[in-house]
Design goal:
The complex is a heterodimer of chains A (about 375) and B (about 525).
Chain A (H helix, E strand, L loop, with lengths): L1 H13 L20 H34 L16 H33 L8 E8 L2 E13 L2 E9 L4 H4 L11 E4 L3 E8 L4 E3 L8 E3 L5 E6 L4 E6 L12 E7 L1 H23 L6 H20 L17 H4 L2 H10 L14 H13 L11 H12 L1
Parallel strand pairs in A: 1-5, 4-10
Antiparallel strand pairs in A: 1-2, 2-3, 5-8, 6-7, 9-10
Helix pairs in contact in A: 2-3, 6-9, 8-10, 9-10
Chain B lengths: L22 H5 L4 H30 L9 H36 L7 H23 L20 H4 L3 H29 L12 H32 L13 H35 L6 H15 L14 H13 L1 H15 L8 H24 L1 H7 L3 H31 L5 H28 L13 H31 L36
The chains are: A alpha+beta (about 375), B mainly alpha (about 525).
């Protein structure tokens, strides 16, 4: 909180927004971290310069006129200025000059556009599928998979905002699981959405693209330096649009390989745990469920289960969460059409069992029953039919 | 050709009747002056409501953290602010000016279709009520969720919203009907009611801008009406126009919306540019420079402006060919727009200028609108827009275009013609204070937003990282000054009506045009005998 107040005081007291403060205040794009971002930065600087020069010229003429051509100075208006040769031909001269500027800009812009817009052909790109959700990001590494139950499963990361006490000064620009990418390689992002429109934007990478349900849009970057790059969702996506940060960790290829290996082990371990056909105890399910609920469900239904009615109903005391297990699992697995409640069937049986158990026994809900992974498996097969 | 004389036998003693009294004067009015006044009062009311929502937005953004507003209430206000300002304040104010001034300027006794004129105004209060209900309904039990989509109403988000979205859709229908009716009336009036001998290319530029604007409105408003109707069907009748799961396309709505939304920018700006064409020559004491190229320029703006809409959607993943086309088309618009700005600068050049409040606004508009136009060219560049898109840079850009380009032009028009409308002079000293406070606080509010946008702050977020604090504080403080300054504007208007000094028919030394041949205020029925134009 200190940052806020000192920052505010600095401005109110001094109103100095150039000067020494300028170093830490962002006045321009951050330093690019990719070749395409550098191209975009350069075209931005070119158009900014052209705009600044034109602005100076316009201001120059107007100010000269304001100073000299005024009645208080006894200046006599030239009633025939519009009939001079300039008056007759300015409608040609001005458009030609403006067209010249336009073509200069368009020419450079077109070159940059062609470089950044289309995915380089015939090259080996690493594919990352970026899925926007209300209000978190899902990253799927299409080139890295592990075998689960005999089927290849892509490496998948869920990335959610961190609350203020955990995020510190990067609050709203910090996540639990960043998007880790290897420096020096070319990455293709495939954007889509599971619910409403979102937009993937990291200023250091510069390429912004909308995530639209039913569409797959692409961008690509060639990361050229290591670092942590922070961005946010840029398309209004509802209540917690402000809580959809994107963090890219650009690391060396070796580090990346190690990280991929670790993630694979984590995936295998959790799959193995879910597959054990055992009956889980209440404490285990509740502890697991609390963690999962707080990370995946609480953005809408809130940590205390009270929701944010009318958009997000309360679960504490809700008919569904305290009713028959079947109905409860149905809404978790299949969602509710026309609302922000999407199907959560990509979670494994244990995870859903834990969340359901937690919801049935937390915040004063004391149904007392436990949901076991096998119940979830049964519910899934019903859903399939 | 602007010099005119009064018809020798023009005599107001022979009028049939004066203004009716009481509520009937307003409710049943078919008089272009009364209807113009009602439009302007309505617009001023909406300006304050839209301004209040802007103040709440800036209050929330004053500091990082959620202090004042729930996120959905914030999003609701963002939606509400845009709709109130665009449909409630600027468009009705411009229509009010058209009602008052077009008949006076072309020597017509009234608008061509007076009863339709009454209808097109009286739809507005109903539409305004629907609009406000769409904001208020969620606060009642069972009112559903708030509109959290922004004025762009993109699905699928707008499908999730509760019944308030339906109120909004019907409000947009009503506003659209009102605009189209008013446009028809303006076109018919301009084509049929000009004083004998007044050719199209002799009309004041303000009349020209409204002619072009009216055509634009008729061309694009129905597209928006179609778009929101499809949205309504998707919401309630199981259609899938915009639902990918049902074979529809969420991006289709964006195209329909911006097919209306981009020309809408010119609808907002052109009438104000027309006002400048009256003001700048008056206070430069010199004929308008480049009449023909102004007319040509605005027609070019109308034509090109209708085919570049997708530059609002560069990030949806269009093909290289499509974005290249939209980029070049958008950049090309700088030619006619630049030509219009240039002509006003050339009108000032070698003039004998004085700086009464309307002229101060005109000069400020030329400078600040040029700046907004130049950032517009930056935004038109697709690769750079991948960075700017949906950031605070865009917010700064369009406020630099729409406040100077539209709102300040309307302020200039009010100060320029208020003495004509009321017969009373406004307080020049107070008006100049208003000008300086207004323009300086406007710049301090919006200029820093360019920087936070470049640094990475998205638009339409209720809470932001501490790295954006300083400029947001500055922006908010200036925004409060900017907002409050409009109370002075209101005071000046009331003061003028009540106590202003009586003025002559020709209020301004350098003014030319038919409206200055009539007494101030003009009689209830003016130009009952058409003026004879001096040759």
């Amino acid at each position: 909180m200190n940052h806020k107040h000192t920052g505010a005081l600095a401005v109110v007291a001094s109103a100095a927004w150039a000067g020494p403060a300028a170093a830490e205040l962002g006045l321009n794009f951050p330093q690019p971290a990719a070749g395409v971002a550098q191209e975009i930065y350069d075209i931005h600087m070119l158009t900014t310069t052209i705009a600044a020069v034109l602005l100076v010229i316009i201001f120059g003429f107007v100010i000269y006129s304001l100073v000299h051509h005024r009645k208080s100075r006894g200046y006599q208006a030239d009633q025939h200025f519009h009939e001079s040769w300039f008056g007759h031909w300015s409608w040609v001269i001005v458009p030609v000059l403006v067209l010249g500027v336009d073509l200069t800009i368009a020419n450079s812009a077109q070159k940059t556009l062609e470089k950044v817009w289309e995915i380089p052909k015939g090259e080996d790109l690493m594919d990352v599928k970026v899925v926007g959700h209300q209000w978190w990001w899902e990253y799927e590494y299409l080139d890295h998979s592990v075998d689960v139950d005999g089927k290849p499963k892509n490496l998948r990361i869920e990335s959610r905002y961190l609350p203020e006490d955990k995020a510190g000064e990067h609050y709203l620009r910090a996540v639990d699981n960043p998007l880790v990418l290897p420096v020096g390689s070319k990455v293709r992002f495939l954007h889509t959405s599971a619910d409403v429109n979102h937009a993937f934007w990291v200023p250091e990478l510069a390429v912004k693209k909308d995530a639209i349900p039913g569409y797959i849009t692409e961008t690509w970057v060639d990361l050229n330096r290591e670092g942590t790059f922070r961005g946010q969702c840029a398309e209004l996506c509802g209540t917690w649009h402000s809580r959809m940060p994107i963090v890219v960790e650009s690391v060396s290829k070796e580090k990346f390989a190690t990280w991929v290996e670790q993630q694979k082990q984590v995936m295998l371990a959790s799959a193995a745990e879910a597959n054990v056909d055992k009956t889980w105890g209440k404490d285990d399910l509740m502890a697991k469920g609390k963690d999962l609920y707080n990370s995946k469900c609480s953005a809408c239904h809130q940590i205390n289960g009270q929701g944010l009615p009318p958009a997000f109903p309360a679960l504490a005391g809700s008919k569904i969460a305290t009713g028959p297990i079947q109905g409860h699992l149905d809404i978790i697995l299949n969602g509710k059409a026309g609302t922000a409640m999407v199907p959560w069937n990509t979670l494994n049986d244990l995870e859903i069992a834990a969340i359901a158990t937690y919801e049935r026994n937390a915040w004063g809900n004391d149904v007392g029953d436990l949901v076991q992974p096998r119940d979830v498996r049964a519910a899934r097969s019903v859903a399939v039919k | 050709m602007t010099a005119t004389t009064l018809a020798a036998d023009h005599d107001h003693e022979h009028e049939h009747h004066g203004a009716p009294h009481g509520i009937r004067r307003w409710l049943y009015s078919t008089n272009h002056k009364d209807i113009g006044t009602m439009y302007l009062v309505f617009a001023l009311t909406m300006l304050f409501m839209g301004g209040a929502s802007a103040m709440l937005i800036r209050m929330e953004l004053f500091m990082p953290g959620l202090q004042l507003l729930e996120p959905d209430l914030y999003n609701n206000l963002v939606t509400n602010h845009a709709l109130l300002m665009i449909f409630g304040a600027v468009m009705p104010a411009a229509a009010g000016m058209a009602n008052w001034m077009i008949p006076l300027m072309i020597g017509a006794p009234d608008m061509a279709l007076p009863r339709m004129n009454n209808l097109s105004f009286w739809i507005l209060p109903a539409a305004g009520t629907m609009l406000i209900l769409s904001f208020v309904v969620p606060f009642f039990p069972g009112g559903g969720t708030q509109i959290n989509t922004g004025w762009t109403l993109y699905p699928p988000l707008s499908i999730q919203v509760g019944m308030s979205m339906d109120f909004l859709i019907f409000a947009i229908h009503l506003l659209g009907i009102s605009s189209v009716l008013a446009s028809i009336n303006i076109i018919v009036t301009i084509f049929n009611m000009r004083a004998p001998g007044m050719k199209l290319m002799e009309m004041p530029i303000f009349v020209w801008t409204w002619l072009v604007t009216a055509f634009l409105l008729i061309l694009v408003v129905p597209v928006l009406a179609g778009g929101v109707t499809m949205l309504l069907f998707d919401r309630h009748f199981g259609t899938s126009f915009f639902n990918a799961a049902g074979g529809g396309d969420p991006v289709l709505f964006q195209h329909l919306f911006w097919f209306f939304g981009h020309p809408e920018v010119y609808i907002l700006i052109l009438p104000s540019f027309g006002i400048l064409a009256s003001i700048v020559p008056t206070f430069s004491r010199k004929p308008l420079f480049g009449y023909n190229s102004l007319v040509g320029g605005m027609i070019a703006i109308m034509v090109i402006g209708m085919v570049v809409w997708a530059h609002h959607q560069y990030t949806i993943g269009m093909s290289l060919a499509a974005v290249s086309y939209f980029m070049i088309g958008t950049i090309i618009i700088s030619i006619p727009v630049g030509l219009m700005v240039f002509n006003y600068m050339a009108t000032m050049w070698k003039g004998s200028m004085t700086f009464e409040t309307p002229m101060l606004f005109a000069v400020a508009i030329l400078l600040m609108f040029s700046f907004g136009g130049l950032t517009g060219i930056m935004l038109a560049v697709v690769p750079a827009d991948m960075q700017y898109h949906d950031s605070m840079f865009v917010v700064a850009h369009f406020h630099y275009v729409l406040l100077p380009g539209a709102v300040f032009g309307l302020f200039a028009g009010v100060f320029y013609w208020l003495p004509k409308w009321t017969g009373h002079m406004y307080n020049e000293r107070l008006a100049k204070i208003f000008f300086w406070v207004n323009v300086i606080s406007f710049n301090v509010t919006f200029f820093p937003q360019h920087f936070i946008g470049l640094a990475g702050m998205p638009r339409r977020i209720v809470d932001y990282n501490v790295m954006f604090t300083e400029f947001n504080v500055l922006s908010s403080v200036a925004a409060f000054v900017f907002g409050l300054s409009h109370l002075l504007f209101l005071y000046i208007i009331i003061d003028t009506v009540r106590r202003g000094k009586q003025v002559e028919a020709k209020v301004w030394e350098g003014a030319k045009g038919l409206e200055w041949e009539l007494p101030s205020p003009p009689p209830y029925h003016s130009w009952t005998t058409p003026p004879v134009l001096a040759r």
